[in-house]
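Morning!

This is the sequence you dropped in the shared folder:
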Amino acid sequence: MRSPNATLLVSALLVGVLAGCGGIISSSESGAQAMSLVRVSNGFGEILPHKVQALDSNGVPTAQVVAIRSDADLLAYTRSSNPILSTPVFDPGTFLPSGAPGNHFIYATFTSPVDVSSVLTSAPGQLQNNSFAGSILVTAHDPFTGVSSVISGRAFIDGRTMGAEPVGAPPELPLEQWVTLDGAGSTVAVVQGDGSTPGLGFPGTQGVFTGQHELISTSTLVFVVDSDGDLATHEAFPSGVQVRMEIKTSVLSKAGRPLDFQALASTTVGADTLAPEVLFSPPPQAFPRISPGGGELGVDPLTTIRVEFSEPVQPWSVGDLLTGTVPTLSTALVVRFGPTTSTVHVPFHVKPISPYDLSVWDLIPAFNFPGSGPPQAECGTFNRVDVDINAGQTTDLAGNINQLAGTTFFITGEGPGIANIPVTPDAIYLGRTGGSPGISVIDLNGFGQGTGNPTFDPVNPILEGNTNFPNNPNVIFYGGTMLPPLAPGTCTVDGGSRGVFTLATDSSLNDLIVRAPIIQSLGDMMLGWSLDVAFNNAPAPFGCQGQGGNLCATTGFKVIATVIDGSTLSPAALNPNGTQILIDGGPNLVGWSPHPNPPPLVFPPLCVSPYIGGQEPTSVDTLALFLPNLLVPGDPFGDPATGVPPSGLLATNANVFFQGPSLPSTQIAACATYGLRQQIGQFLYLIDRARNEVVVLNSNRMTVIDRIEVPDPTSLAIGSNLDLLAITSQSVGAVTFIDIDPSSSSFHQVLKVTTVGQSPRGIAWEPGNEDIFVCNEADDSVSILSAFSLNLRKTVISSLERPFEVAITPRQTTFGLARNVYFAYILGRNGRISVFESGPNGVNGWGYDDVVGSMPMTFNNPKTIQVDPIDLRSGLWVVHEGRLDQGSQQLVGAPGEGALSNIVAETGTPGQIILSSISLLIPQLRDIHYSIKVSIGEERLTGVPVDIAFDNLTNLGGIVNWVTSYSAGSPVPLNGKAIVRQAGAAQPTNRPRFAFAAVPNPTQGLGGVDVILLDGAFLRYDTNVFQPGIQSIEAPHTNILMDYFRQ
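The structure's back. Tokens below.
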């Protein structure tokens, strides 16, 4: 950064130069800190910095001229209607700025004294290069032939230059003082030891001109043209070429600071009539100087593209600057990939390598290139990127236009991989720690066209590791007739799923989809709002802001028309006689899967800004073609022994429907109402404790949306109305609340930080949105925060020993024991569960609003506790060691062996129990008997589990959120996090069929996830029909599991 003194100095110099009509004024060296360029001049005017007219408040150019010294200046002032001003040229004759005879020269002044050794070299062999060390070059370039040559001359710093005769051993050129300022400030040639004055002919020694003394300074480099070794014979720079002074950042100050920006000063002798052309490499290759290019292999798909011109060019003639708007397609340069039948033209922003060098431009693509995929599944024509140069489009500062066309190409490599992952309700999210922390996703759909291996054998359509997408019955029987069309993929960008219970992969076939450098560590995870409320392909200004937009994807055509169909929701059109729910607009339902899940990536994308790369889900218009959905519950595995492929969903109730928008149209009448659209997925929040961040991801593409700083983030909880995210900070003793409502003006901002007890860890949000519980492990307390104010409501300390996790079941109004209170279950390190009963506890109240006792059983080495989503009798799941006996509730499994126990409030006095003198006779735990419904040990588990989650395949998330008269705020109409819904009678929101247990250290194998079938005997479920025995999901180092309704 330029120091304040240097900034004032530069401003003063600019004013002086402009006022003096091109005259040179001196620079002061005092106070300079950073090594910056003050100017480059040829004596007839400043070549650098570039100049442009200032704009008034209406964007109209004024008479005021400003210098461009930063990217911000470039963005603020340059327009096609306000071009950068042309640079001064040399007089064709050998004249000084005063008109007196003399040599042509060019000089650069810096804010700090120059380290001579960083610019000039004493090596005799570099005399032919004017003794330049390489950080500065002065060349002549013919843009038409592409030939560059060194201009012969002599370089001076503070009047000193390298001598012509080597001395010493090894021989070196001496640094000699050839010119200096005398006592009167005049430039004089220094008499050498032999009586000669070789400096005679240096500008100012043979005729004065204004400001000549600036050329004798430790901060100024002067280059004087000299082809015959005699400055006294006046010479001019060559005509008919670009005279270029290149200044690199390897120029150092005496303090060792490098130059902050590289620079290129370019001018001509006489009027500039030379066209700006892209530079070419020397023959025989003669490739355009475009990097990557020249057939380069293995290029990172995330690459930018650098283009080098023969001279500075007008920014607007290259492309759109990074103004925050969506880039349009450039007419000067074309970036394209893909087969000739469906070539993708890539829009890009442009950015100069330096505000002082407008000849080198970086093209920043609006989206990443597909990449080649791994060797076994390369993407063919999609990984070749061509860059074309169009003639007659690029303009230099003098108004000349390029004349030469050209082309080059490069081949992208595998790169870090891009992801297109199945989304809720067909996903379980895994947090994997160890040496390479990251996220994996269990695919519970199995028929999607996400990123994955495209290998498929029609003769044997069921092979382990091959794609299962071509077995999707809709693809088999409809395929290209669907809207939009579907077809088997050709590379890892659209290869598709390997089947149910497999880990989704990115285009590099890596199942660790989110990893370094995106995150450094991984903690708790939660899902928030559906992404389509913020990112969708509706036309501007509502959805897509550039390079896309579909009128039929407008929110006004989105109608969530559902019917309650038992424990699930179906589109109303499929069951017109059921109880219907109609909501205009709204987010994508967490209970409905897009078809396919996910849809394939397409090029070009649906929308460039915001970037939406996936195809829309299968349109509702497909049904109008009499093509009913064939992907329904059925056989998700197939039979490898007989070659019968999978043919149906794992879900027991249909959750896949054709609900996408109509195909793009400009006619409102052509748009049908729809229920699902891109962007599919949810906002995914995860803790990166190493970076002190909450990272916000797109759960489908796994790209970073935001990063929010939070000190020592430890654990997460989301409000049941999806409005707030709460984060405990263990070392700080606080809870941070972040706004996560995309419609809010404070979206993703910290709203409040509330102080709690010591070492807060576990946190849970009461499902009815009344309170937030925070476990303070170090001081044996629980802080209860009000969901109304987010302030501390009370602190509970009774019967608690190192509480670290908590689960909360909703206020039992018409279900469970109908006590009209909610219960919180606080798990301590001692393995005991303390039971909290809510109020009201005042006069005529019926709840203690305090801990009412502890359960009789002890859970050895407890890991976590989660609410049982199915059993509304305050059902719980505890992850621990040592199985418990169902009858005696005592430890029967060996300590150190894994266990999962399901607890339920089995019996108790039903109804509200008023707090009165009679209530004093009620036994501990308010006369509730908690029993063990089942306790699973290592006879079914592969090791010690550390976390648990449940599938969301059948859920009632599309019904308005649960609310009571004690709830804060209004209930969210769709996708609320409450675990109960009013669908006739009170029902569980989520009815999972499977529980997932994270087992990072199994007794055998590499570790991963055990799947427990919740139907019947709670047996471990075989997830891989290709291998003998009962197989778990292999995912080493899995320590965290997350589903949408996780508390």
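Headline: The mean pLDDT is 93.

More detail when I'm at my desk.
O.
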